[in-house]
Automatic annotation (TrEMBL):
Residues 1-19 form the signal peptide. This is High-affinity heme uptake system protein IsdE. The keyword Methyltransferase does not apply. SUPFAM superfamilies: Helical backbone' metal receptor. Its cofactor is heme b. PANTHER family: HIGH-AFFINITY HEME UPTAKE SYSTEM PROTEIN ISDE (PTHR30535:SF36), VITAMIN B12-BINDING PROTEIN (PTHR30535). Residues 26-284 form the Fe/B12 periplasmic-binding domain. Pfam families: Peripla_BP_2. NCBIfam families: IsdE (TIGR03659). InterPro entries: ABC_Transporter_SBP (IPR050902), ABC_transptr_haem-bd_IsdE (IPR019957), ABC_transptr_periplasmic_BD (IPR002491).
Length: 284
């Protein structure tokens, strides 16, 4: 049987999907952000969605079977749904690719580490599942928005920014390779950990952060935002090193809504850029 293979330089990778399967799709997604993309593309053949206590799934998929948490989907449940394709973010490819392969289910990993990566993946997904026109509408809207945004904001000198991604009980530093890092870059900010690593997130001691001398500190969370905020407040009040940061003494520490500043790119990027514009430049 003739196979269709789409591979786009780590932006979107997939196994083999037959032409016959394209017309009889049964899609499982392990990501809320990808569920939102499928909703925008008008895809009604989703048979499995992630379990999420933090984010709300599109109404289109009310009543669809849940397949577990994004980082640890339940392969037994997924197998019973007889999917033709599983869609997950490529940030989890290292954890999930072998599991999908062992289950002999075709899988694709979408790049949700940046806004531009997301739209490139939308374009490729549209070609894969027969939603080219719907995908092109979304891509064209994005291009128009970014042209206008860059024309308006392209000459502004942004601040030096430290980005902290909180987890319950701990936190890491977000590099420019993370989604939040890509938003800071689009808004003209200068991530103080640009060029430090190819990873999205890195572990760094507070003394090293102090040497980077950020103008602004942004704090967001992967999950359980209320618990993470309490954790951050305790860390900043009990670890006296933070009191030596100019960003702290100048009251330039900001907690961000993880609905806009989470782990994966999503359609809230315009709102996120508005928030950063206000924090960086004092303008909406």
């Amino acid at each position: 049987m003739k196979k269709l293979l789409i591979v786009a330089a780590l932006l979107f990778t997939t196994g083999c999907v037959s032409q016959e399967e394209q017309s009889e799709e049964r899609i499982v997604t392990t990501s809320v952000a990808i569920a939102e993309i499928l909703d925008e593309l008008g895809v009604d053949t989703v048979v499995g969605v992630p379990t999420s206590e933090t984010y709300t799934l599109p109404e289109r998929y009310d009543g669809v079977d849940e397949v577990g948490m994004p980082m640890n989907p339940d392969m037994e449940i997924i197998s019973t749904l007889n999917p033709t394709l599983i869609l997950s973010p490529n940030s989890l490819e290292g954890d999930l690719k072998e599991r999908y392969s062992n289950s002999k289910i075709d899988a694709a990993f979408m790049n949700l580490k940046s806004v531009t990566g997301m739209y490139k993946s939308i374009e490729e997904l549209g070609a894969l599942i027969g939603k080219e026109e719907e995908a092109q509408v979304l891509v064209d809207d994005f291009k128009t928005y970014m042209e206008d945004y860059q024309e308006k904001n392209g000459d502004r000198e942004g601040p030096r920014v430290l980005i902290l991604m909180g987890l319950p009980g701990s936190y890491v530093v977000a590099t420019e390779n993370s989604y939040v890092g890509s938003l800071v870059e689009l808004a003209g900010g200068k991530n103080v950990y640009t060029g430090e690593s190819e990873e999205d997130f890195i572990n760094v001691n507070v003394e090293d952060m102090l040497e980077k001398s950020p103008d602004i500190i942004l704090r967001t969370s992967h999950a359980q935002p209320e618990d993470v905020q309490v954790m951050f407040e305790e860390e900043f009040s009990t670890n006296e090193i933070w009191q030596h940061f100019d960003a702290v003494t100048n009251n330039k520490v900001y907690d961000l809504d993880n609905e806009y500043f989470g782990m994966s790119a999503n359609f809230n990027y315009q709102k996120a850029l508005e928030v950063l514009d206000e924090l960086f430049y004092g303008s909406k």
